[in-house]
Every structure is written in C-alpha cells, then in structure tokens.
Design a protein that fits this description.
52% helix, rod-shaped, three-stranded antiparallel beta sheet
Length: 90
C-alpha cells in the first residue's frame, strides 16, 4: 500500500485541484443547459395580416403544401419559423 505524506502543502494548495476540476465540470454542464428558443405560433389572422393575403389564399397555400398548419384544440396555428422560411427573397 502506498503512503502519501503531505508535509509542506497548505490547505489552499490541497483544495485547488478539486476546485479546478469542479469549475471544469460546471463549465461543461453549462454548455449542455443552454436555453432553447421558444416556439412561436401565429393564428390564421396574424399570418394573413403579416403576408397581406386573404383567409382563402392562406387556406389554398395550406392545401398546396406551401405552408404547414398545426391544429391545437380546434385552432389552426402556423409556426413563425415556417412563415419566415416560406418567404422567398427575389
């Protein structure tokens, strides 16, 4: 069995490697716990106002697959990200 003798080590010197290890692990953990962006949904009327189109046009785009609608509790909602991606730069 090995013996370790700590003669000239101060308590601060003894604790420093432990604190460094804890800081390193804490920093690694913070990278995994970054807050995710919250998903924003828009109603049909909000999308119509944003794109300056009628409800009929919005319904047609939904049927043709240009926009994807989500139904939640009898409501029709659209993802803000899908609307932003559907707008094509000319």
């Amino acid at each position: 069995m090995k013996k370790v003798q700590l003669i000239t080590i101060t308590p601060e010197d003894l604790n420093q490697p432990i604190f460094d290890y804890i800081d390193k692990k804490f920093d690694e953990l913070k990278l995994h716990l970054q807050p995710q962006q919250q998903t924003k949904y828009l109603t049909r009327l909000e999308v119509c106002e944003l794109l300056n189109v009628s409800l009929v046009t919005l319904h047609t785009w939904n049927k043709n697959g240009k926009l994807k609608a989500y139904g939640i509790g009898g409501r029709v909602l659209y993802l803000q990200e899908d609307i932003d991606n559907a707008i094509i730069k000319l």
